[in-house]
Amino acid sequence: MDTEQNLELFRNLISLNRNLYYWKYSPEMELLWTNCPSRRLYSTIFGLRDRRQTISGHFQSSGVPLIIIDIFEMVWICAFEKQGEVCRGIHVIGPAFHTDASREYLNQLTAGHNLSINYKKALIECLEMIPVVPTSTYYEYGAMLHYCLSGERICSSDLAYQTEGTLPVSVSGAAKEEPLTHQHAGIWQAELNMLKMVEEGNLNYKAAFQQVSQLSSGIKVRLGNPLRQAKDSVLIFVTLCSRAAIRGGLSPENAYTLQDLYIQTLEDCKTISDCMAVSHTMYEDFLKRVHKCRQKTDVSVCVKSCCDYIDMHIYEKTDLQMIADRLNYTRYYLSRKFQKEMGISINDYIRNRKVEEAKLLLRSTSQSVLEISNILNFCSRSHFTDSFRKVTGLSPSRYREEEQRL
Predict the structure, then answer these.
(1) What is the rounded average pLDDT of the residues 193-210?
(2) Where are the domains of the chain?
(3) pLDDT band at 176 (very low <50, low <70, confident <90, very high)
(4) Which residues contact 65 (CB under 8 A, 6 or more apart)?
(5) Residues 33-86: pLDDT tens digits?
(6) CB under 8 Å to 31, separation ≥6 — which residues?
(7) Half-sphere exposure of 4 (CA within 13 A, CB side)
(8) Average pLDDT over residues 231-245
(9) pLDDT tens-place string over residues 83-126
(10) What keywords sit in the KW lines (predicted)?
């Protein structure tokens, strides 16, 4: 079959059990065709024209399907039809929800958008008709659409998010697909594997994420608020990862400090995609810290205590004299011993750790460069920028731009 025949078959398959619509746009974002009867309403919500730069930039940097979550938590998947390196069309499936949403929650979503009463009522009625598609199933549709357009086989975990470059992590709600006993047994084993990777500091974790996203359709309860469900799910995951990191050798002080940081960041999330970003960043952070701990098995208690102190007080102003006083060592002894075992001065180590923390904040939060500079207690924004560029070769702003393109 040719591409058009493949696409027609694909459209028919995804619409068999769900009202999942298909949209085709030109490279200039002009709507060419859709099977959606309410095209004007949904096209306005999706705001594809406003996303032109984002979608175009993503195509230039990657070309894999792009997951977009709009202001009403509806999920869309964009895939690209191309000839060589040139985009010939943009194919979109959606919208869909990942979990059931109560009318009360839909009212909350539509509040604050200056909508007339009649328009808001019509919008909520349309939102109630949006199909609920399990995360794993929806992302597999995206991979299938990519195959129909390009002939290239990819995994569902290869899809990219519009926001803060994360891997798909299932936080969806509610489809009844298979007996809970069988599905939960598989999920339990997959989660054990993920926690084992944290405990071992195993950097080959992407396969574990893929396994969980394939097994899980998300939380099966209907609490009516998908965002709250997502937060609760990630909150549990943060706690489990912190315990696994302690078993792997990370100091309890560091693990609990990180846990508190991520829980606070999670509670500040405004969208499900933000929760996904926090979940992935948290998991990667714990895993890499354990990996680093296990790589330094020959470090003395003195130097390890010094590193732990720096990590625990990364948001405070610290220097060699302060650390020496707190750990009851002389400045000269601690400086020489640290340099000998770590191959770097304490001040450079502090700078590098603060830059690593800054990279994390730039990836996972919307805080400004100045705010991050102040949080990490750099003496000025220019000092922060100079330190960041010295370690990474990029300015903080440029680093954030590069990460968001991934």
Answers:
(1) 74
(2) 3-161, 180-295, 301-405
(3) very low
(4) 77, 78, 79, 80, 142, 143, 145, 146, 154, 159, 160
(5) 998 887 777 776 666 456 777 788 788 777 889 888 777 778 889 999 988 888
(6) 23, 24, 25, 39, 43, 48
(7) 0
(8) 87
(9) 888 899 999 998 888 777 777 777 776 776 677 777 777 778 87
(10) DNA-binding, Transcription, Transcription regulation
Provide the token pair at 346: 């304490």
**d(C-alpha 11, C-alpha 8), whole Å:** 5
301-405 has which fold? Answer: Arc Repressor Mutant, subunit A (1.10.10)
Tell me the C-alpha distance between 321 and 16, whole Å. Answer: 69
At the second CATH level, the architecture of 3-161 is: 2-Layer Sandwich (3.30)
If one counts every other C-beta atom within 10 angstroms of the C-beta of residue 368, the result is 12
What the block records as the tokens of 27 is 């490279």
pLDDT of residue 155: 78
